Amino acid sequence: MKPTVAEAYAACLDITRAEARNFYYGIRLLPPPKRNALSALYALARRIDDIGDGDLPLEDKRNALAGVRKDLGRLDDLDEPVYVAVADAARRYPVPLGAFEELVAGVETDLCDVRIADFDELVVYCRRVAGSVGRLCLSIFGPSTGGTDFETLALYADQLGIALQQTNILRDIREDFTNGRIYLPSDELEHFGARVALDEHGALDDPQGRLAGYIRYAAGRAQDWYSLGWRLLPYLDRRSGASCRAMSGIYHHLLRRIGANPVLVYDQRLSLSAGEKAQVALASLAGRRKSVPS
């Protein structure tokens, strides 16, 4: 039986609360209608990501992603809670459903071993898997002031998503490598004389510090992308701006720590504590980007 819209949104909120370890701190700052809608979009994006990262055989993953593409074209005919909620959100807000197809294309890149030739190729990948999410978020946030066309705001949202994905990549170098993926551009690694490899203890092997030097460089560049993306903030209403600041602020604090001390990611998956994330969220609600101890 098809769930009610309220039941569908409740299911998406449960998924978001359980799975969005960083984004939930920002999503919960939104008023209920926007919180519901953004949770629905997150739940579908999470499903797409989980297909790529799951344990299904390769061909089954490809078929599942093709199924998502098909479902996006018939949302009103589906009775699965996530799709019911996304369909309702798309009726209430200008959701760019094509952004989900971009996300699917990005996840398809992850299905096999990944090697990135240069930064231009990396930007294309980041735009697909994270810039798309930034644009989806913008469709729910909505601009509160005039003076800048929506296409420009979408560019800012896209750039902020790219900044977050660069942070993810630097945080997850070791984990990605164990899964056959190296997102650090090959030409840049060569320029720094760096390589991605593990030592006998399973940590990133960097005896001469060349990988650390590269990570500091890449973190500085990612900072520039945050600066570009944060141009969006003045155009959002208070609650939407707080949500955006909180979501991006948590990742930005991770980036600062990685840039200051790259070896933090050599043998662990770096994260902020729940208390630190709460500090960022509260400061975001107050209208500023909170600094937590590095």
UniProtKB/TrEMBL annotation:
Gene3D superfamilies: Farnesyl Diphosphate Synthase (1.10.600.10). The keyword 4Fe-4S does not apply. Pfam families: SQS_PSY. Pathway: Carotenoid biosynthesis; phytoene biosynthesis. Keywords: Transferase. This is Farnesyl-diphosphate farnesyltransferase. It comes from Kribbella pratensis.
